[in-house]
Amino acid sequence: MTDLLDVASAVLPGQSLHGAFVAHGGSHSAVVIPDVAVVRIARKPTAVSLLPRRTELLRRLNSMDLPFAVPVPLTEVVEVDGHTVVVLSWLPGSGLPRGTAVDPAELVRLLDALRGIDLALLDGLLGEPHEYAGGSRWPSLMLDEVVPRLPADVRSDARRRIEDALTLPAVTPSLVHNDLAGDNMHWSADHRLVGVLDWDLAQPFDPATDAACLAWYGWETVASAVPADTLRRAHTWYRTFGLEQVAFAVLNGEPEDSVAQRCATAAAWLRRTAKFPSPS
Questions:
Q1: pTM passes above 0.85
Q2: What span, in angstroms and rounded, lies between the C-alpha atoms of 122 and 120?
């Protein structure tokens, strides 16, 4: 932790780090200085290479008239003692626990804003669909490498879920955040959406995937915020989400014991969601 605090001091000279804390994500660490800034530090080679692109995406989003705040890059991407770093603005508000009821109108406002963005303005700054779990390899990775690793009793269900997603009719892609849940959405004390963080998985894709992520706030809330067809598509995509952690592990060459643990977690999720509404 001390090492990362030293990095924060180097990029924010003279700034007090009183109250600062370190948070770790899958590919990044962050030194969070409440009410001041967040020092984002890439930890994995892929994250290092993508940090400039992701930082420019934030700049571009901040030039748009969005109904919520997005972190503002306060520095360029820099190297500090072997660390690749950028400083982002602090966003007010906080995440809400899973299942917290919110006004569906807040979700409508968010989804409409994302759908209304001209993708041409973000050319070169977005990942490809399913980038996290294989990109264009998603179908073969999921069917040929993920499913066979799962316990025998859940393989047919997993294969059916993936095939259901692959046979969805094509829709016009729009900007998809792809991780609209938890601490990535900041809310005011009266549950108004004030900010959206962590755009690392942003891509041009089916907006129903964002609706599926928003099930964090309950499917009843999502059903009140999107058309019936979008809801059905969201159900279909949601039924694949728990498998993508295995795809990510395989794609990134994680040790077999780590892959096995992710398979066990995915199998438990498959069993738990076996009665979740199937696409009709």
A1: yes
A2: 5
